[in-house]
Amino acid sequence: MSQEFLPASGKAKKQLFHSGNFLKRVNKYKYLYLIFIPVLAWYIIFCYIPMYGIVMAFQDYTMSKGFFASPFVGFANFRELFQDDYFLRAFSNTVIIAVYRMLTEFPFSIILALLLNEIRHIKYRKTIQTVIYLPHFLSWVIVASIFITVFSPENGLVTTLFSTVGVQIPDVLTAAKSFRSVLILTDIWKESGWMTVIYVAAIAAIDIQLYEAATIDGAGRWLQMWYVTLPGIRNTIVIMFILTLGQILTWGFDQVYNFYNPLVYDTGDILDTYIFRTALADIRFSYAAAAGLFRSVICTALLLVSNKIVKLFGEESIY
Amino acid sequence: MKRKIYIRFLTVCISLLVLLVFSAGCGTVTDSKGSTPAEPTETDSKATAADTDSGAPVPIRWVRTGNEQDPKKDRILLELQRRMNIELEIVSIPWDQYPNKLNIMMASGEQLDMANCDPGKTLIEWARNDIILSYDEYLKDGKYPYVSSVVNSEAYKGLKIDGKVYFKPLGLCPQQWGYLIRQDWLDNLGLDIPTNIDEFYEVIRAFTYDDPDKNNKQDTYGLYVRAGGDADPTELQTFSYILRAYAINAGAGNWVELPDGTVTRYEVSDAAKEGARFIAKAIKEGLINKDWISLKRDSAQGPESDDFAAGKYGIAPTSIPDVFNQKIMSVNSDAKLAFLPPLNGENDVPPNSGNNGGYWWGNIIPKTCRNPEKVIELLDYSLTAEGRELTEYGIQGIHFTDYSDDGSGGRIYRINKAECDKDWDTQKNGYLYPLAWGGFNYYEYAYIPITEHNFDYDEAFKNVKAWQPEDMAKGQFANWQIMNTSYSIPSPLMNVFDDNLLGDEQKLLSIFAEGWLKSVVDIDNFDRQWDEMTEKWMNAGGKEIIEYGNKYYKENK
Amino acid sequence: MLFRKRISLASILIYTFLTFFALIILIPVWHIFVISTSSPTVYITDPYHLIPKSFSLAEYKRAFHSIGGIARALLISIEITVLGTVLSMFLTCCGAYTLSKKDLPGRSILFRILVFTMFFSGGLVPFYILVRNLKLNDTILALTLPVAISTYNLIIMKNYFTGLPVSLEESAKIDGYNDIQILYKIIIPISKPIIAAISLFYAVGYWNDYFMATLFISSNNMFPLQILLRQMIIQNMVLAQVGVQTVGSNPEQFKMACIIIGIIPVLCVYPFVQKYFTKGIMLGAVKE
Predict the structure, then answer these.
(1) Residue C110 forms contact with A (CB below 8 Å)
(2) Which among B29, B81, B361, C251 is least surrounded, fewest beta carbons within 10 Å?
(3) Distance between CA atoms of residues B252 and C157, nearest Å
(4) Partner B contacted by A37 (CB < 8 A)
(5) Average pLDDT, whole number, for chain C?
(6) Chains that touch B (3 or more CB pairs under 8 A)
(7) Helix C2-37 to helix A140-151 angle, to the nearest 10 degrees?
(8) How far is residue A12's CA from residue A237's CA, in Å, rounded to a whole number?
(9) Residue contact C109–A5, C-beta within 8 A
């Protein structure tokens, strides 16, 4: 039990013993403990008190009986999950789409931020930034309606462009094969600009003297980007990588919900849409809760594993 | 050593904290559970006392959607509150979050006096676990004849749960949707209005390929479909028109009577398969726009009416023919529209326009209601001619000047538009007060003459009287609803809500929709896709539902 | 010479790419604007034009007319955003700074307590009961306090604080500052870019939110702007769906006008935040 309270990193452990007097160190940080009290209190009140709702996943929950009177059924809900072909299909779709996203959108927003940083013309840069943040404020309902007309096989922009050069493309929105690409492309359109915010902020915080020193050493812009900017935001990239990985399975309900149709369930039906469309509407709350809990466990595992890997590579991990 | 002591101290602290958290969590809940039932009984006695000596207004906390009216300012609501001696508080939930939030409010035991909701599995669960009150005990002594006549009518008897009334449906005409056809296109091509499925096929083919608008461009379609995002493509009015030529009230979730007297679900019936095959053929031949699966349907029929006005297609389903007519006239004054009646079906299926059960949503009374009698009194009043007029057209002398009677109970109201504009957005709602729909009643621009038919609701329902504003009464499609309703035939087991008949409703629907679409876009493998869907559907609980349905059907014939 | 040439070629590529990307984004948004200001007949006959052929503010007028309390809703939205962002930033800074101390006793378990909540929650019903029991329903606090901390943002911030040079604090300690003073007098001023970024995340989150408001606000006169806009768009659909005759309305154009109304306030505020992203703030803060 007491092992739990040892600080996780080896370096810190060493420090702990070196510093000797433990209570003295607690005393040293007394002000920090003081300002942490409201934070901890917030977490306890708003996150941990409602946590009893998790029992629903192990119950045959009915609204009228509530969390305390509904009968417990053990892992029956989970068994039902894994026997449901449609759940398994939705789960594998979720994972595959998540992997695609990590491979495309994640690097894309970093590159975008780096390119923005290369622009010296301040007004131009500000305009571009404002424009690429705009779609973040449009809801997916709207974005979907825009792209449905763009991709339309009837007279949509994309189809027309392709047909003028003599290529007939199928209806990408209803073909199971292309649906995932549509999701990725539209998400890049909508969110990649917004995702640069954090990198732009990190770049802005890089000590300007480093650039000055690099210039004196004769480094051009590419070298500066490689040897100053990228190392300067490496830490941020790593953290974003871990955090994104930890949340990736919960992404995309609104997007998929507004784009999909029954013809692309095979490749595009994700966990959230499947649960929303069937279990919640059929008031199978326990089933939905079990699916959610299962996903939470996978997400936690992803976060822990990626954190560990990052540590192995000697990078700053999230804790 | 000190470190160990510290850690032990921390452990104790944290365990205490965790203990505290959980006790607080449980405490909060038991608290809410304990206090909510206690509270109403207290206020209940108070409220009844107040009621008897006609003192302070009785508070009614009502959850509904689509509400913009402020009970403290809106003149019609103020008048209603004065007449009923009530104080309304309206909890307004945006449309798309309605079921979600109502579920949460009910599950958390929040104090509510009245709510609007859909029938179905949730309602059954609430009723069986006494989360909502039954109307029966308050209707026993005949104090509320209007409500009584509605809930005990033949039309809604299937809505009872274990023989008791929990749900007062909002009466609605069984079919507000109908079809418009471009008469000028028919004339250009020398065709008549189609009367059966073969003629219909000829018409949509000609509308697509024979240049009905004579502009020498192939830019028209017979049908223009928007199915995007819909979980159930058979629900689309465009397809329904075709599918109903093969089965009465065709559509997922409905039942079909077979020649041998048994029933089966529409999803797995031969009628559904034949209807789907027709659609598959139409798609293959390019008679339907290519982007029909992804284009989103708009419930306001905005893009639908815009495209129709732009002359993209020739046959339109709509519930708002005047809007379609007005729009097309604004860009093309040569256009001529006509009403397209349902087809004479295959295998002796009569022309039918579908049936929604004759209601849309209903009122329920949660257990936490402080004064159920008053709520029912309010519902009762809303069904009287006086109450109906107030909730539909407002106050005489303010919102309308007067009305003329057509001699048989129908009325034409002379609206005072300037005054209406002050209380609601007339551009959005028209000159019908927003409380006219989705509040107490649903039958818009109409009155259900319950008194006139001696509280026989079924009889009254058949003789609904049109109450229209002047502008509407003279339009080309003035009796649109009546026209469509005249073709309305209910399918077997309509309005029966029994959880064994529903099963995992949405999961079954999802399987059906996926299989249905895969079949119709792939005519070469139509039969294989269809059989696969049928098998999956049956295995997901469909078989049990059909068995139970037949048993129920036999017993309740 | 060659080197210079390559750089300018790269610049051309970068400028072209970014301009192209921005255009791809801008055109549909511009199209929404054009639709919202077209006259109805122009819109019906040619819905896909990008150069305005007509100009009409009728749908905007209607939007302002039909939401009686648009000014009030806007005010409520601003209140929520300001109050929420301040609250969030206060708690997040406190939490992030404390956890950024590597040798803080108990840091690991505290951190785990926080991270656990990123993945596990009790669901909506217990949450709703809690907020109701705290008597927060129908107040602005209900929309801010229960969602004040995003662990995601807190971790980003903590990570940023960890990366700051230790020498800063050491020199401050010598000057006799305690930890709280260090946080507010030294750390926060030099962390402006990240504070601006995280504030922006929080502010936009509060501004865009409608889910919390549908959950906890039940009276019309407390609705924030997003609910009003959304309700207008969606309710418009419901009314027509169920058959109310709406002669003379253009739901599509009305919808577009509502979208533009929702974006304009953001565009007005954004330039003020943006300036924090362009400067190197650390300049001259400390010399190691």
Answers:
(1) yes
(2) B81
(3) 52
(4) no
(5) 83
(6) A, C
(7) 100
(8) 23
(9) yes
